[in-house]
TrEMBL record:
<dbReference type="GO" id="GO:0004197">
    <property type="term" value="F:cysteine-type endopeptidase activity"/>
</dbReference>
<dbReference type="Pfam" id="PF00656">
    <property type="entry name" value="Peptidase_C14"/>
</dbReference>
<dbReference type="Pfam" id="PF06943">
    <property type="entry name" value="zf-LSD1"/>
</dbReference>
<feature type="domain" description="Peptidase C14 caspase">
    <location>
        <begin position="63"/>
        <end position="261"/>
    </location>
</feature>
<dbReference type="GO" id="GO:0006508">
    <property type="term" value="P:proteolysis"/>
</dbReference>
<protein>
    <submittedName>
        <fullName>Metacaspase-1</fullName>
    </submittedName>
</protein>
<comment type="similarity">
    <text>Belongs to the peptidase C14B family.</text>
</comment>
<dbReference type="InterPro" id="IPR005735">
    <property type="entry name" value="Znf_LSD1"/>
</dbReference>
<dbReference type="InterPro" id="IPR011600">
    <property type="entry name" value="Pept_C14_caspase"/>
</dbReference>
<dbReference type="InterPro" id="IPR050452">
    <property type="entry name" value="Metacaspase"/>
</dbReference>
<feature type="domain" description="Zinc finger LSD1-type">
    <location>
        <begin position="7"/>
        <end position="31"/>
    </location>
</feature>
Length: 304
């Protein structure tokens, strides 16, 4: 039994024999090591909330749960017009098209009167913890983020391009950004076998915001191209047996944009997702629709 991997240096496809820990490329001579997936541990889904954070998240409801987060950064130089509409559209879509219960959706935005539903770094972290808390086989989870994304210099050697991708909570200027390593630890690593997570990240530099080990692109001719994004250190970035699928508004080195749909501001990626599903198109056409759109967003920044 053979497994197909790419050479770590020249990206030439290589056939790795089953059980082999590494393989030498006949083209460039580089040795590519393969980090085995860790065994599934039944208790790894029991994640703990970040220390010192409170109050406790609301009780978990149902087999379908979602966190939708939209940040407009009102009255700041980073202001976005469409993000609050984004999360309202996504919440409506989940409830009407996919039968998510209202009490199983946490919506974070600046219009909320509950202080723990304002999209601060603290509250987003607690919402992530709530989403995966106690998940069981058959559960369907959704995480949607609409707001600013950025990059910062990576210092632990687990990024191919040398940068971590980040999400910018409302208070990022004082509390810092949410780094892709932490998103992976909170949302991806705890997922046990039989649990599926769909993430929609509508932000700049969001291509690998969940730090997943593999990335799939679709080109304009409809062909799928898989890329190996496992860190050179061999640290496992996958799940504990579950399935995590992330759709991003743009690549790590690209930016996203506001648009106007039905006289309301939204970000283009979220608008495409909502309109697509509301019109009952076949899911198999979804990636082709996204591949036909280009995105541009202002007030983007890189932290080094």
């Amino acid at each position: 039994m053979m497994m197909l991997i790419d050479c770590s240096r020249c990206r030439t496809p290589l056939q790795l024999p089953h059980g082999a820990p590494c393989i030498r490329c006949a083209i460039c001579g580089a040795i590519t090591h393969v980090a085995p997936a860790p065994p599934v541990e039944p208790n790894r889904g029991a994640v703990q909330p970040p220390p010192g954070w409170g109050p406790p998240p609301p009780p978990v409801h149902g087999r379908k749960r979602a966190v939708v987060c939209g940040i407009s950064y009102r009255h700041s130089r980073y202001e976005l017009k469409g993000c609050i509409n984004d999360v309202k559209c996504m919440r409506h879509l989940l409830m009407t098209r996919f039968n998510f219960p209202d009490d199983s959706i946490i919506m974070l935005n600046e219009e909320q009167t509950d202080p723990y539903k304002i999209p601060t770094k603290h509250n987003i972290g607690m919402a992530m913890y709530w989403l995966v808390q106690g998940c069981q086989p058959g559960d369907s989870l959704v995480f949607h983020y609409s707001g600013h994304g950025a990059q910062q210099r990576n210092y632990n050697g687990d990024e191919v391009d040398g940068f971590d991708e980040t999400l910018c909570p409302l208070d990022f200027e004082t509390q810092g950004m949410i780094v892709d390593d932490d998103i992976n630890t909170a949302l991806v690593r705890p997922l046990p076998r039989g649990v599926k997570l769909h993430a929609f990240i509508d932000a700049c530099h969001s291509g690998t915001a969940l730090d997943l080990p593999y990335l799939c692109r679709m080109n304009r001719s409809g062909q799928y191209v898989w890329e190996d994004h496992r860190p050179p250190s061999g640290v496992w970035k996958g799940t504990s047996g579950g399935e995590a699928i992330s759709f991003s508004g743009c690549d790590d080195d690209q930016t996203s944009a506001d648009t106007s749909v039905s006289s309301r501001s939204t970000l283009q990626f979220t608008a495409a997702v909502s309109m697509f599903y509301s019109l009952n198109y076949e899911v198999s056409l979804f990636r082709g629709l996204l591949a036909d759109h280009l995105f541009m967003q202002f007030f983007c920044f890189v932290f080094v």
